[in-house]
Design brief:
Layout: E1 4-9, H1 16-31, E2 35-40, H2 48-52, H3 70-85, E3 90-93, H4 96-108, E4 113-118, H5 127-139, E5 142-145, H6 148-156, E6 164-166, H7 182-188, E7 201-206, H8 216-229, E8 233-238, H9 244-253, E9 260-264, H10 269-274, E10 278-281, H11 290-297, E11 302-305, H12 310-313, E12 320-323, H13 328-339, H14 342-359, H15 362-379
Parallel strand pairs: 1-2, 1-3, 3-4, 4-5, 5-6, 7-8, 7-10, 8-9, 10-11, 11-12
């Protein structure tokens, strides 16, 4: 019989961790080497339709309010029962909440192989959360880091190096390829027709607006400087969250209201990137950014803050530029440099696409994950 693998995710919202987990679920299912199951803490989110289309059977949810009430205990027992009933051989969790909840349930249910994940750097968690996650890592047989930067942070936290495996995010390059004409792309993105000028330049950022870690204010401050040097520059902000209105207010304060377009959750990423001249990420902290890989896969030059694994993807001066977190002046200088030298920008974009194809493909992600699963099963006498 095929080993049973359960992927436990937080929700079906359009976050980087969720997209990567569902993509991995699909790749493993299509490979056919494992019997793949999927479960979540929350059943909500637009990605659920894609998950259900995989036809994996029941996709149970184990909703939590916090880790310390009676409901959490009841949900823990439910997950333990599910793990035993389905005879799960490998439990793979993908973020803080599923690590803590899943590793506890997997340990109590005696799941042979338990794999936690870390996808962030920069001290995003409170002290209590870090302590809880340390317990989860101790209960795990392996911890997957999605970059060398994350691996180093795990080692600094006391996780032994042999317990950590680096598996980079995988990207389907074809998903980022658009053949839609520029004018049609503008229409699909609901951008005003007057934005389609020969001189006009688009600078794009794709990041959620739920956390200040993405540092949209830095991006907007840089945008104000860029606008001074390149009056026809326009700024496309793709993301949603509770910070949206405060960011709109900041754009107005910076006199950018006529040049900034808040797109919300963007379902047309390929079209968005196809019209973009420069793509930006201004995060204060990251593990390994999906957005950066998407920019590069679409053949766009990148200007990103040098945090987390950004330097493992962006080759300074060849596929884009890395700047210090919070330094909007340096970010604006790099953006303007690319806008004023389109041939250089185009070459950087081409280099970036080649880097993604060679190092960050779905095939590489699947191969490394399946090898890891097989080795851990063999260690438990299940191979």
């Amino acid at each position: 019989m095929k080993p049973v693998v359960l992927q436990l995710i937080d929700s079906f919202h359009q976050g980087g961790s969720e997209r990567q987990a569902i993509q991995l679920t699909r790749l493993l299912h299509e490979s056919g080497r494992f019997n793949v199951r999927l479960a979540s803490l929350s059943s909500e989110g637009t990605l659920r339709a894609a998950a259900e289309a995989l036809d994996l059977g029941e996709i149970p949810s184990f909703p939590l309010e916090n880790f310390y009430d009676l409901n959490a205990f009841a949900q823990l027992r439910r997950l333990m029962t599910f793990l035993r009933r389905e005879r799960v051989d490998i439990l793979h969790t993908h973020d803080f909440y599923t690590n803590v909840f899943g590793m506890a349930a997997g340990s109590f249910a005696r799941v042979p192989v338990r794999i936690a994940s870390m996808r962030e750097t920069g001290g995003m968690r409170t002290g209590a959360q870090r302590n809880a996650q340390q317990v989860a890592y101790k209960l795990a047989n392996q911890v997957i880091a999605n970059s060398e930067a994350v691996r180093k942070e795990l080692v600094e936290q006391g996780i032994r190096d042999t317990k950590i495996a680096v598996v980079y995010n995988g990207l389907d390059v074809s998903r980022l390829t658009s053949t839609v004409p520029r004018s049609e792309a503008l229409s699909l993105l609901s951008l005003p027709a007057e934005t389609n000028s020969v001189q006009g330049k688009f600078i794009t950022i794709v990041a959620n607006m739920r956390h200040d870690v993405k540092d949209y204010p830095m991006f907007l401050r840089a945008a104000r400087r860029v606008k001074t040097a390149v009056p026809d520059a326009r700024f496309l902000l793709a993301g949603e969250g509770e910070l949206t209105e405060s960011l709109r207010a900041l754009a107005t304060e910076l006199e950018l209201e006529s040049s900034t377009f808040f797109l919300g959750r963007c379902e047309r990423i390929a079209e968005l990137l196809s019209i973009s001249d420069v793509c930006v990420l201004s995060s204060k902290a990251e593990g390994f950014s999906n957005s950066i890989l998407e920019y590069m896969a679409a053949g766009r030059p990148v200007v990103a803050t040098d945090v987390g694994g950004a330097g493992e993807a962006v080759v300074e001066g060849e596929t884009g530029y890395l700047v210090a977190s919070g330094d909007d002046r340096e970010m604006s200088d790099r953006i303007v440099r690319l806008l004023q030298n389109p041939d250089r920008a185009r070459l950087m974009g081409e280099n970036g696409r080649r880097v993604v194809e060679e190092n960050f493909s779905c095939a590489a992600q699947l191969r490394k994950t399946e090898t890891l699963y097989a080795n851990l099963l063999a260690q438990k006498g299940k191979g």
